[in-house]
Amino acid sequence: MEHVTASEQTSATLMYRVERPVFNEGYIDSELLHRKKRTPKSFQRRIAEHLRCSSDKAKSVVFGFLPILTWLPSYPLKQYLFGDIVSGISTGVMQLPQGLAYAMLAAVPPVFGLYSSFYPVLLYTFFGTSKHISIGTFAVISLMIGGVAVREAPDSMFAVNGTNASQVVDFEARDARRVEVVVALTTLVGIIQFVLGLLRFGFLAIYLTEPLVRGFTTAAAVHVSVSQIKYLLGVHTARFNGPLSVVYSLDALFRNIASTNVVTLIIGLVCMVFLYFVKDLNERFKKKLPIPIPGEIIVVIMSTGISYGMVMSENYGVEVVGKIPTGLLPPKIPDFSVFPNLFPDAFAIAVVGFSIAISLAKTFALKHGYSVDGNQELIALGLCNFMSSFFHTFVVTASMSRSMVQESTGGHTEIAGLLASLLVLLVVVAIGFVFQPLPTTVLAAIIMVNLLGMFKQLKDIPALWRTSKIELAIWMVSFFASVLLGLDYGLVVAMGFAILTVIYRTQCPKNALLGQIPDTGLYFDVDEYEEAEECSGIKIFQSNTSIYFANSDLYVSALKAKTGIDPAQLLSGRKSQLKYAKRDNGERKAVNHCSPAKKNAVVLLDVELGVTHEVVAGPKKQMDHVYTNGQMNENHTESESEDDFFLQRLTPIHTIILDFTPVNFIDSVGAKTIKSVIKEFATVDVKVVLAGCSRTLLSDLRTLKFFCEPVTPDLIFPTIHDAVLHSKRSRDVPVCPDVQ
């Protein structure tokens, strides 16, 4: 019975005392606990219940698929509308130049960035569960798309006269083909995300750990920056893709740097300085400014006007955006023939895009006190990409910078995103042609300034060095693999390495011997805490890992190393002991036959380091320090027979307790290993018991047929203290003082 007593004085220590028998699993399972009776449902019945339709279930499905129905009918106009309008306009103004700029990363004409900033955002309003993320173009995803487009439709395929030497490329045909490839890729990404959402694979993003994602996005920022330098300098070079593409791109830039267009460079640098200054102002005075200063749209409008007035494309050779068709293009069925070549890239883009979106969505949901559904987010992104691809868009996800603007300017619901998309629609339908004189170096400046936030992630390196070396290794591998091998292969390598670190943690756990804190039932590492005292004759071993095929042998090795007991070595020592005993008996007989003088063999056992022997001559020598039945006996005379050696304990340790509290799971190999350990230590008269097993682990052990002779449930104890008390009673030897 448990008694809880507390002094009325506030300074008194709260105490609890429990008085009960020592339990083992055999008693608990047969006497203390009784399982509830449950009738298992048949497979057919479970399927029937799952497919059964009711009004409540239909309503739940519809509301889950269209989250807008849950909040739009109760939308508070007076409280939310003004904030959503301001937020939508601010986000839309930011989305316009980013859509134009990120289209260049995707290797398609800029107008397709505007299409991608309208259709998917409109659809997300109906299917998304996050109230604050801004769906649309994003630098990392756009760069991954551009890599696929360049690979499937390189310049060499569209060289006039069929040779590369002429350096004349049919840009119109090339861009048309790249658009087809990108649209097909977007369709495939949408299908993958939608199917994964239906299959409830929303947990997939957990395999992209935060260090992996941050290292990957930092590497993507390097790729993006390198790809934009040529637009900033006005240099014409080929676009490279695949492993070492960064190196090849830099090499091509340095080879052609003499052809830099000075006017283009000046425009780009001025825009970068202005944008950095505006961003700094927005960050410093974000609490005082009602809305952020729209530096990007200011730069676009001013540079477009100056370029148009000075006819820069003709007078100074400045490259401009070019033709932007007015209005929306009619829907078109994607080219399904390229799907087989695109599937690996589509899967990678689908996972990365979802990971970025769900991480942002969860951040804002936690901040504002609502929940997001990962599976519905997958479905929403899949529908946005799939349905929009018929209208010539490329893959979209959440943008960090725009989401921050949408949230900080007072956005409350998806209405803000809807208004932003309508602003983009207005530009596409009515005034898209106005941006035709816009210099591409301005778009490059916008992209590079927006990457500053990603480069700040380099500060993770010293922080992770101080906190977690393994997570630092994941960050570094993700970064360098993605920079050198490309984003696609780099992501695969990074995910593989992250999984290997999990295996490494199980291969190199912390192993410890536990000791009791006097007057308590608490046990801690004896190497770390002065108060922890080992129990006499008992070793308590703890390994902070689960036990399965990959680490079971390591577990046994650590057990033997920590306890200092190796049954095979001790048995070998016993054989050596017996050998010397036989020889000494023969010598004694010969000596006794010839002389009254006697000689005696003294065998010393080092129980911690192994077995050694020493022969000492002299009359009436006695055998000292030989362990018999757990007791240290002295004054054994030479009259002992050879059989007495088999009654001598090879070690003063009579019980080893395996603390299974940290063990989450065990497989068949692990169970067989523990069973063999119990049998092996029994050969040297050391009993091995288990303590702290969870009910789930016990159920697994029963399933694995662990409990059969000589292993029984009586060897399993609910706590370490139960095991210690049992070991004390079963072996009448001194144990820790004050064991209660």
Instruction: Count up the domains.
Output: 2
Give the uncertain stretches in residue-range form.
5-11, 595-641, 733-740
Give the neighbour order of strands across the main sheet. 6-5-7-15-16-17
Largest sheet, described in full? 6 strands, mixed
Portion of residues in helices?
40-55%
Report the structural category: alpha+beta
Percent of sequence in beta strands? 5-15%
Give the count of helical stretches: 28
Mean pLDDT: 84
Ends distance: 15 Å
The total count of strands amounts to: 17
Shape: elongated
Query: What Rg, in angstroms, do the CA atoms define?
Result: 37 Å
Transmembrane segments: 100-127, 133-150, 181-208, 257-277, 289-311, 346-366, 378-398, 418-451, 472-504
Keywords: Membrane, Transmembrane, Transmembrane helix
Pfam families: STAS, Sulfate_transp
Subcellular location: Membrane
Task: Give a structural overview.
- The protein has 740 residues and is an alpha+beta fold.
- The chain folds into two domains: 77-504, no CATH class; 511-567 and 649-731, 2-Layer Sandwich (Transcription Regulator spoIIAA).
- Helices cover 55% and strands 8% of the residues.
- The chain is built from 28 helices and 17 strands.
- The longest helix has 30 residues, at 339-368.
- Mean pLDDT is 84; it is low at 5-11, 595-641 and 733-740.
- GO terms for molecular function: secondary active sulfate transmembrane transporter activity.
- Residues 528-727 form the STAS domain.
- It is found in: Membrane.
